[in-house]
Automatic annotation (TrEMBL):
It is an enzyme of class 5 (isomerase). GO terms for molecular function: isochorismate synthase activity. Its EC number is 5.4.4.2. Signal peptide: none annotated. This is isochorismate synthase. The keyword Isomerase applies. InterPro entries: ADC_synthase, Chorismate_C, IsoChor_synthase. Residues 155-168, 179-192 have a biased composition (Basic and acidic residues). Residues 169-178 have a biased composition (Low complexity). It comes from Halorubrum alkaliphilum.
Length: 471
């Protein structure tokens, strides 16, 4: 049954104060669960803790249900945000499809869940801010302002532990990477070849144009998974990506990642989105990188795979838009892979809520396929694991219905001693199962590099495939 549940009932009270730049890991560790972090190249860094209100929903109507619940939550408010970046926003995400959160490691993740943090740290271009928010009959300006002052003092004490400039005394080091004791794949190389061939048969049979097939990799960790340190390292390594982390209510695990793919951002009537599909590796040298990029731009199979996405995104936006325009196709270079990328912008023909666009666009053929129903059927029949929030929309919504959503790829769920990683590839008629297998290994690298004790520098994935060829 579909459901929408909100723990909010009455007024929202929110107060913000300017603070010194907080030490990320100490601030993250000091906040209560459920914690959220969000940062993007054109967005402030947010670290949220606790919940002033939680919106959850399930079933096919989960997008509309969250929208209604968010509109209700934001319908009345006593807000002194001080700066735009610290205005009340709910942060969260959706399951890839209905029923995707049934099994491990997703059982604590609802099919849609957004949290209005009770304490939020915002690091924006114009400084750092601390916000306290409460919702409900007993929320009052006095109690929120009291709490703000207490949280400010607590945070300032964390900041006191930082070295003075020029202080050369030994500093506590970041927790190191946990190390991997054992890895298990959901899909053997043989099973993969079989699934890709079957998908290609469907495509050649005319039923399907493209399908994105994914795998999961379960890693048992040698030491506890260091949440804050991992998020910090991903932020340093992937400054051009959307970085996200979401804890379920019980804080028992965390879904996190650094994705190059924006699903949609809406500000007023201006929409920005990306078509991102078609992949090659990184070279050993700048010249080799260039050569691989040129080859990718000219490669018929990758360009076809990419154009299916770009065309579909444009078509899906058209009913909502006064104008849609696409930039030139280019190559997006990341630490371990390079992708074909087309930036797409649109002006809407009427005021819309960002979740209307999220629902219209998800899943794009970059993570689902074409036609969507056939692709989803193929995914269901093929993948032996639950996608959960992998490859689904994650982001934020504000009171005006603006928002920013990313596609949650290059991601994993980690509990104390276990991480489950996800990666997928687009299959078209002339895909080669072994090359697609190799591409999946490259797409695990951003997360795997944060779990293994030794970081490799070549980015080619040979170590991983060499140790375990998936048989
Ligand atoms: C599905 C993933 O990536 C998607 C698939 C791509 C491809 O097939 O070339 C490229 C980028 C993403 O749109 C993933 O990383 O898990």
């Amino acid at each position: 049954m579909d459901s929408a549940r909100s723990t909010s009932s009455a007024t929202l009270v929110s107060r913000t104060t300017a603070i010194d730049d907080p030490p990320f890991a100490a601030a993250f560790d000091a906040l209560p669960s459920p914690r959220t972090t969000w940062s993007a190249p054109d967005d402030a860094l947010v670290i949220g803790g606790g919940s002033a209100a939680t919106l959850t929903a399930s079933g096919p109507d989960r997008f509309a249900a969250i929208r209604t619940a968010a509109e209700e939550l934001f319908s009345s408010g006593d807000v002194h945000a001080g700066t735009e970046a610290a205005r009340p926003r709910v942060f969260g995400g959706f399951a890839f499809h209905e029923g995707a959160c049934a099994g491990d490691p997703w059982s604590s993740f609802p099919e849609a869940r957004f949290v209005l943090p009770s304490v939020q740290i915002t690091v924006a271009d114009n400084g750092s801010w601390l916000t306290v928010t409460a919702v409900g009959d007993d929320a009052s300006a006095v109690t929120v302002e009291d709490r703000l002052e207490r949280e400010r003092k607590r945070l300032a004490e964390l900041g006191d532990d930082r070295p003075e400039e020029g202080d050369r005394s030994p500093q506590p080091s970041r927790p190191s990477r946990p190390g991997i004791r054992e890895q298990r794949r959901t899909t053997s190389r043989e099973a993969w070849r079989g699934s890709v061939s079957a998908a290609i048969d469907r495509i050649r049979g005319g039923n399907l144009r493209k399908v994105v097939l994914a795998q999961a990799l379960e890693a048992d960790l040698e030491a506890d998974f260091p949440r804050a340190a991992t998020i910090e390292r991903l932020a340093a390594k992937y400054p051009d990506c959307h970085r996200y982390c979401f804890e379920p209510d019980d804080g028992s695990s965390v879904f996190f990642g650094a994705t190059p793919e924006r699903l949609v951002s809406l500000r007023g009537r201006t929409v920005e989105t990306d078509a991102l599909a078609g992949t090659t590796g990184r070279g050993e040298t700048p010249a080799e990188d260039e050569w691989l990029a040129e080859e990718l731009l000219d490669d018929e199979k990758n360009v076809h795979e990419h154009e299916l996405v770009a065309e579909t995104v444009r078509e899906q936006l058209e009913p909502y838009a006064a104008s849609v325009s696409a930039g030139a196709r280019r190559v997006r270079r990341l630490a371990t892979v390079q992708h074909l990328h087309t930036p797409i912008t649109a002006e809407l023909n009427a005021d819309r809520h960002v979740l209307e666009l999220v629902e219209a666009l998800h899943p794009t053929p970059a993570v689902g396929g074409l036609p969507p129903e056939r692709a989803l059927e193929t995914i269901h029949e093929t993948e032996p694991f639950d996608r959960g929030w992998y490859a689904a929309p994650v982001g934020w919504i504000d009171a005006a219905g603006n928002g920013a959503f990313a596609v949650a790829i290059r991601s994993a769920v980690a509990s104390r001693r276990r991480a489950t990683l996800f990666a997928g590839v687009g299959i078209v008629a002339d895909s080669d199962p072994d090359r697609e297998w190799d591409e999946i290994q490259l797409k695990y690298r951003p997360i795997l590099d944060e779990l293994e004790t030794e970081t490799r520098t070549d980015g080619a994935g040979t170590d991983e495939t060499g140790r375990d060829d998936g048989k």
